[in-house]
Sequence to fold (331 residues):
Amino acid sequence: MATIYEVAALAGVSPATVSRVFNGLTVSEEKQRLVRDAAARLAFTPNKTARRLRKQSSEIIALLIPDIENPFYTALARGVEDRAQESGFSVVLCNTDDNPGKELRYLQIAASEQMAGVILSPASDEVDLGAIVSLGRPVVAVDRTTPYPVDAVKIDNRAAGIAATAALFDAGYRRIACIAGPAGIEMTEDRFLGWRQVVAARGTGTHEGYLQHANFRVEGGHAAMKALLALDTPPDAVVTTNNLMAIGALQAIAEAGIPPETFGLAAVGELPFMVLAPATVVQVRLPARYLGRTAATMLLDRIGGDTQPLRTVVLRAEVSPPVPPGKGLAL
Fold:
């Protein structure tokens, strides 16, 4: 069986470079090609069992997300897996349902199974990373942050809320409400603060009841939209701070028999493909797949020994064209 030293000699690089290639660390494309070509010619296979014993960890990454049914997290997970596979790592997907108890159990499993690291979108601001951090395992928070000193990748959520609200004002709507996620989550608060900032600057003031908190799911958006429509002065448009709540809001609007051309909706996040005529809704498109890929790259760098200061990467969203009055929702 070929050794790492034979691969290095054939490739014309050092054994350390061979090790970096097979551990998924940063190496020039030319050196990667030389090493992989040499390994293929020599039928070299890295000894993963020995590597695990040396590192006291597996080549498995835990990915904890709150809702696998949400297309945003599906795309995020795909980005994580794509990058992990490139470096020879596997991903275990854990669905927490935004339940801190489930989340803690998965984190304990990741620690006990000696997983190499964790990427998570925390279920709450009180996430307990003690078990995994005490083992020295790297953690990257994605989409939401944690009180622990760990790397993070997130969206510029306040800018996303501003963009969604401004698009509706630009389209001619004036009484713009907001359906936000649960209170106390940083991402939720940043997005509705963006809404509030634009309403304060361009609107006629915030009407009582125009901010509704709900869970992040379809039924939450549906209930919140019904509450908004029942107000004495109902809104003529609404911003939802995620995509699934937007679907619930659309359902409530249709059930109320409101003419689609009289009501505007802007969603932070892309609507699933099964929603009819999504082009008629303002969508703030979130780079979910790139978000996941970036998080995985940061985690793999830490696994490989990166000792740079902690980083928080902030990504920008993209807004679809606004909808003028008279060309509103088509259900």
